């Protein structure tokens, strides 16, 4: 070191901006930190090409009207950013280009980025390199998305009666975060904002798998929809629900014997719904309506009705069911309740009551009707009677992780977590990766 | 079949008589005389419970189908990006940006690296010169502690501050007592939290297919989604009844051999 230089510069002041990115497989949640927290932008994280070979990037994709035969390319694969060429294009359009909605100068911006737990080290290293060397962010923290949820006021979500207000802005002490996203579902026990890494478990069932599975079922039973991922995803979001009693619902969808159709099958049985498919001439959006046998009668078909209706019966609840029983579709993995059981088996019993009473579910799949009730019911069956099981979901489970990260970015903890560009250049990539892996650590 | 009024009762007793014998028939016996001679039937009645009733080929097909569901679309995703961006500011980022590796490629790389490390460690431990090398690496890892701040901190889980309800004479009643396991000590929690992250494969939930305590695996009709009670003789696909079996047979011919 040069003799004239000061040994240590004064603690660098906080960068002017803080950019928070929750880089999901389906959507990118992005926002700049402002004092009253504004909701983040939710941008489809993909590049799409329609039938006329026109390309749409990121937020442009939500404006596509003719979604038939849409080819998609996603930068995030199995929860981690793999294709940086595409990801940089979407990032650039979000916060770098002129006219970008969140325009900011990276050299005076702090980046808080979420990642999946148990990411591959090579992909983490790629991510750090791009952030510092390509964008040149002033400081940066890359943390496990689930842990950010601890910074919410969790007890309000569970509606716990409080005789004294909890310490404001402190991470929840004990909670179990179930993050069911587009790529996969993870179970993360979180103690005071720190993930218990030895107990993190993953189930490779996510929204993408469900959409593709629904596309396969519909292709086998109705029309070929294997190239209509976009439409099938909308059908899934509109029609699917988690059955409270799977066995009963399967029986109710029985079509009857060869000779005579079952009465409940003909009337729909309360489960069957019709999805009116868009024809991309007059109708641009599909629509879910109640099942109407008259719609499928022969006379109507001969008359040449202009609407194509897709009848959904047991597809409605069989699709989300694979999160609870992946073996139903031949996948050799335990269901979500078993996964929670496996995760807790590795922890001391003394933590079980706290974790089970504070299960927070986030991610897009949680929006299925009945998800929480079913999860609660099945988790109760797997643990001693004395354990109270509470499952709650935040008001908006998709942006919940982003909101938590926004609270963390205002919290004193963040100063311990971030790495500045200077530190990165001095310490090198591997030490930075180790610091991120350690997080708040045991300290 | 009318057996001349004789009902055979299965018993564990074996009666020896000249020329012939009653032998208790206790389920499956893979002897050469009892095994089905038909090749297809033999394949479909492979021994094993629940999921094991699939042949290796069916299982491979199933795994392939599940893997296919994790990908985007059914075509190769090569959509060129509109506009031209710079090719990366440094050599390293240029390499990252141009990389066309998929997640599966990265995962394979990671496994290969892990195995190489394991074998290197094994050879280093076995060889004599390895011991000095090992010491060096030990020193190497101990250096990283410079980052960690090791000063005493407040406990991670704060003690509860709420007011407990006033004591009641029935508190010690063994019938009313609730036993709550004690929360682990601060040292135990610190030890838990200092655990390094698991690798990608370690974190996946483990599947114990032969667990007798678990309910058996449900099978569904591939045509209509009802319970799969009947199996196609040709390919082993599950269907629910004759109605669906006929639907399935129409395409089973074309799909056979896949």
Automatic annotation (TrEMBL), chain A:
- The answer to keyword Lipid biosynthesis applying to this record is no
Quote the subcellular location field of this record.
Cytoplasm
Keyword annotations for this protein, in alphabetical order, are: Cytoplasm
Q: What Gene Ontology terms describe where this protein resides (cellular component)?
A: cytoplasm; nucleus
> What SMART domains does the database record attribute to this sequence?
ACTIN
Self-association state and partner proteins as the record states: Component of the SWR1 chromatin remodeling complex.
Question: What family is this?
Answer: Belongs to the actin family. ARP6 subfamily.
Outline what the protein does: Component of the SWR1 complex which mediates the ATP-dependent exchange of histone H2A for the H2A variant HZT1 leading to transcriptional regulation of selected genes by chromatin remodeling. Involved in chromosome stability.
- Quote the protein name from its UniProt record: Actin-like protein ARP6
| Annotated organism of origin | Emericellopsis atlantica
What are the top taxonomic ranks of the organism? Eukaryota, Fungi, Dikarya, Ascomycota, Pezizomycotina
Automatic annotation (TrEMBL), chain B:
Instruction: For this UniProt record, give its keywords in alphabetical order, as a comma-separated list.
Output: Metal-binding, Zinc, Zinc-finger
The molecular function GO annotations come to: zinc ion binding
A Pfam family found in this protein is zf-HIT
So which residues are the signal peptide here?
none
Task: From the UniProt record, give one GO term of the biological process aspect.
Answer: chromatin remodeling
Q: Where, by residue number, does the polypeptide cross the bilayer?
A: none
Q: Which residues form the HIT-type domain?
A: 218-245
Residues covered by region (Disordered): 17-54, 71-92
> Does this UniProt record's set of keywords contain Zinc?
yes
Q: Which InterPro entries match?
A: Vps71/ZNHIT1, Znf_HIT
The Gene Ontology CC terms held by the record are:
nucleus
Query: Record's PANTHER family?
Result: ZINC FINGER HIT DOMAIN CONTAINING PROTEIN 1
Q: What is this protein called?
A: HIT-type domain-containing protein
Native organism: Emericellopsis atlantica
Lineage of this protein's species? Eukaryota, Fungi, Dikarya, Ascomycota, Pezizomycotina
């Amino acid at each position: 070191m040069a003799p004239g230089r000061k040994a240590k510069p004064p603690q660098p002041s906080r960068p002017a901006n803080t950019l928070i990115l929750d880089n999901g497989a389906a959507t990118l949640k992005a926002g700049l930190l402002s004092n009253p927290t504004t909701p983040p932008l939710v941008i489809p994280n993909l590049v799409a090409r329609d039938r006329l070979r026109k390309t749409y990037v990121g937020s442009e994709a939500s404006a596509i009207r003719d979604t038939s035969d849409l080819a998609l390319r996603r930068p995030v694969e199995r929860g981690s950013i793999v294709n940086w060429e595409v990801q940089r294009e979407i990032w650039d359009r979000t916060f770098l280009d002129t006219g970008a909605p969140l325009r900011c100068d990276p050299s005076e911006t702090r980046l808080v980025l979420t990642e999946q737990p148990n990411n591959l080290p090579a992909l983490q290293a790629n991510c750090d390199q791009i952030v510092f060397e390509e964008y040149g962010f002033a400081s940066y923290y890359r943390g496990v998305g689930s842990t950010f949820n601890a910074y919410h006021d969790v007890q309000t979500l569970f509606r716990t009666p409080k005789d004294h207000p909890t310490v404001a802005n402190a991470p929840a002490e004990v909670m179990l975060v179930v993050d069911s996203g587009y790529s996969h579902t993870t179970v993360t026990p979180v103690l005071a904002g720190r993930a218990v890494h030895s107990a993190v478990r993953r189930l490779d069932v996510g929204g993408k798998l469900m959409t593709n599975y629904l596309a396969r079922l519909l292709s086998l039973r109705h029309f070929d929809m294997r190239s209509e991922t976009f439409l099938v995803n909308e059908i899934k979001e509109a029609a699917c629900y988690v059955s409270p009693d799977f066995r009963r619902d399967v029986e109710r969808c029985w079509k009857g014997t060869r000779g005579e159709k079952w009465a409940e099958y003909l009337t729909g049985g309360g489960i069957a719904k019709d999805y009116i498919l868009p024809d991309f001439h007059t109708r641009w959006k599909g629509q879910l309506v109640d099942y109407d046998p008259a719609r499928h009668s022969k006379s109507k078909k001969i008359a040449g009705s202009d609407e194509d209706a897709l009848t959904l019966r047991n597809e409605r609840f069989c699709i989300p069911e694979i999160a609870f029983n992946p073996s139903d579709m031949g996948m050799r993995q335990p269901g979500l309740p078993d996964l929670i059981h496996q995760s807790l088996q590795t922890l001391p019993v003394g933590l079980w009551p706290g974790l089970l009473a504070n299960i927070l579910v986030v991610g897009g799949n949680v929006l299925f009707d009945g998800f929480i009730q079913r999860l609660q019911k099945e988790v109760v069956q797997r643990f001693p009677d004395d354990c109270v099981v509470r499952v709650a979901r935040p008001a908006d489970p998709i942006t919940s992780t982003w909101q938590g990260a926004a609270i963390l970015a205002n919290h004193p903890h963040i100063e311990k977590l971030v790495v500045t560009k200077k530190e990165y250049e001095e310490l090198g990539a591997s030490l930075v990766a180790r610091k991120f892996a350690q997080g708040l650590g045991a300290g | 079949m009318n057996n001349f009024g004789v009902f055979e009762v299965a018993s564990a007793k074996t009666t020896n008589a000249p020329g012939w014998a009653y032998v208790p028939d206790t389920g499956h016996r893979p002897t050469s005389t009892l095994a089905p001679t038909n090749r297809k039937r033999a394949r479909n009645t492979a021994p094993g419970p629940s999921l094991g009733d699939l042949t290796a080929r069916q299982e491979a097909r199933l795994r392939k189908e599940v893997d296919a569901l994790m990908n985007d679309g059914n075509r190769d995703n090569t959509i060129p990006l509109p506009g031209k961006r710079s090719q990366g500011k440094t050599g390293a980022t240029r390499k990252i940006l141009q990389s066309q590796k998929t997640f599966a490629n990265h995962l394979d790389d990671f496994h290969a690296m892990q195995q190489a490390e394991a074998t290197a460690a094994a050879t280093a431990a076995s060889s004599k010169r390895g011991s000095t090398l090992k010491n060096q690496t030990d020193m190497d890892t101990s250096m990283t502690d410079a980052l960690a701040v090791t000063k005493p901190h407040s406990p991670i889980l704060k003690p509860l501050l709420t007011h407990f309800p006033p004591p009641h004479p029935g508190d010690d009643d063994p019938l009313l007592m609730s036993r709550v396991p004690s929360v682990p000590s601060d040292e135990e929690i610190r030890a838990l939290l200092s655990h390094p992250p698991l690798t990608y494969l370690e974190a996946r939930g483990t599947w114990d297919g032969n667990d007798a305590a678990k309910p058996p695996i449900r099978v569904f009709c591939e045509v209509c989604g009802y319970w799969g009670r009947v199996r196609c003789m040709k390919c082993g696909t599950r269907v629910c009844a004759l109605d669906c079996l006929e639907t399935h047979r129409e395409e089973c011919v074309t799909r056979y051999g896949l």
